[in-house]
Amino acid sequence: MLLQTSSLSFSHPGQSPIQFPDIHLNSGDSLLILGKSGSGKTTLLNLLSGLLRPLTGEVILDGKSLSKLSSHELDEFRGKKIGIVFQKPHLISALNVKENLQLVPYFSKEKAQNLDQLLIDLGIGGKAKSSVLTLSEGEAQRVSIARALAVSPKLILADEPTSSLDDEHAEKVIQLLKSQSEKIGAALVIVTHDQRVKNHISNFIEVKA
Ligand SMILES: Nc1ncnc2c1ncn2[C@@H]1O[C@H](COP(=O)(O)OP(=O)(O)OP(=O)(O)O)[C@@H](O)[C@H]1O
């Protein structure tokens, strides 16, 4: 089992606790996190990445219980094991496409996969030396996927990765996330409201506030 959670709950200041369904994922599995706006989906992603510490329960990723790691160990562990795709790409505008990717092995001290090949696989092989300011929204989101995959993490977390994309780019992005995470043997967890994503991944949990 690559990712296992049990009895997770979390309470934001002044809010009643949110209880989360358990998650069990193996390498190559995909899971959607569904639920109404404000139900706690992003909170759950943050618990899975260790950015938040749970009120109860635990997250076990690749044999390690996140709650047993210090903040420093968690930062290191996250850098090596988890790739995160945000709703907006958040690329560093002073750097070109490939330089944005190269930051990941630099900071995590992990070996990068072949970044040129990764960009080719994502259909943006010709953009390696382009300024990220010149990219279309769909291209920028594909760069952010490449960044999440750069050091072949065990777990890919994506928060509404298709919400700002048109149909064609949304289809491409979801297919790429699936095929690339399968290729590197990672588990894929996506928060989404998007029917276009639901068409591709049937395994889901629902978060209820
Ligand atoms: N830093 C915070 N402090 C206090 N309350 C918070 C904080 N972050 C989130 N919340 C509250 O916790 C609840 C869950 O928020 P969360 O962002 O996880 O929901 P979500 O399901 O991802 O929502 P959406 O689909 O709208 O993005 C909401 O009621 C939200 O207002």
TrEMBL record:
SMART domains: AAA. It comes from the Bacteria. One of its GO terms (molecular function) is ATP binding. The keyword DNA-binding does not apply. The keyword Hydrolase does not apply. Keywords: ATP-binding, Nucleotide-binding. InterPro entries: AAA+_ATPase, ABC_transporter-like_ATP-bd, ABC_transpr_LolD-like, P-loop_NTPase. GO terms for cellular component: plasma membrane. Residues 3-209 form the ABC transporter domain. It holds the Pfam family ABC_tran. This is Putative ABC transport system ATP-binding protein. It comes from Algoriphagus boseongensis.
